[in-house]
Design a protein that fits this description.
Elements (H helix, E strand, L loop, with lengths): L16 H7 L18 E3 L8 E6 L11 H7 L3 E5 L1 E3 L2 E7 L9 H18 L3 E7 L8 E5 L5 H9 L9 H9 L6 E7 L7 H10 L2 E9 L1 H4 L6 E5 L6 E5 L2 H24 L3 E6 L4 H11 L5
Parallel strand pairs: 5-6, 5-8, 8-9, 9-12
Antiparallel strand pairs: 1-4, 2-3, 6-7, 10-11
Amino acid sequence: MMQTGPAEPQVTSLFSNAVLNRLERLRISATRRFTNKSRGEHLYGKGGASTEFSDYRDYAPGDDVRFVDWNIFARLNRPYMKIYEQEEELHVTVLVDGSASMGFEGKLDLARRIGAAYGVMGLVGRERVSVYSFNAAGQSPPRLPPCTRRANMARLFSHVEGIQSGGDAPVEAGVDAFLKHHVGRGVAVLVSDFLTFGDLRRALNSIFSAGLEVFAVQILAPMEIDPELAGDLRLVDSETANTLDVSNTRELLRIYRDCREAFEARLASLCQQRGGRFVRVSSEDPLDWILFDLMRRRGWVR
């Protein structure tokens, strides 16, 4: 009988090693104008210092002679400059909502996993990665400072695994707190249920003005997407403890669904108007499907 060796130790509790291996082969697809002119894997055809050859152009006085193609000069007796695609560094910022409402039906668990997944893609892609958890209960510090490369993966996992729900501040308050520390252009992966009374328009404006392309992921519980309730109910706000007594009728549920769909459409419109992206998922959706099917089809990753 063939004996098998010991099982490979799990790198993180957030997802399996198999998912981690697949994540390491993905890259984040960001809009070019939101990247920084420094080292990274996002190539931009303006000419710069990389090893990715792009084209030739005529020599002009003052050009760096190190980029003259001397083989062509020897044949044509005329100098041509080699043009390389400029490597650009992407700052991948992950913002995870830790408000009390995110503790409902596994929403925060999925938010942590999606946030960590984008962090992994950034680190493996040699981008700068930072994480900010707003509204999280008792987490200190709430911010993982910018880091690069695979060697910082353990720090990323440790920080994200420690995010717990419990706060009640509006989303834009978390965005404002994050932007006080942020420097650099790139993408902001904002993972939340967006069930807030705050000014989401102002929050998205702030992210856009900071040179960040927003990737907004709304996570709702199945009960929030399509509630199946009957009888008289008392609804309790998990963050403010306010109550609302309702008599459950089919018409009331229809109104709720219409309002939810209108709210999702508004979120999508707010993101698109600022060059960003939006998607809504259920807390019961498999992580593999979200990352390797849904987001790949929508062009968020490649």
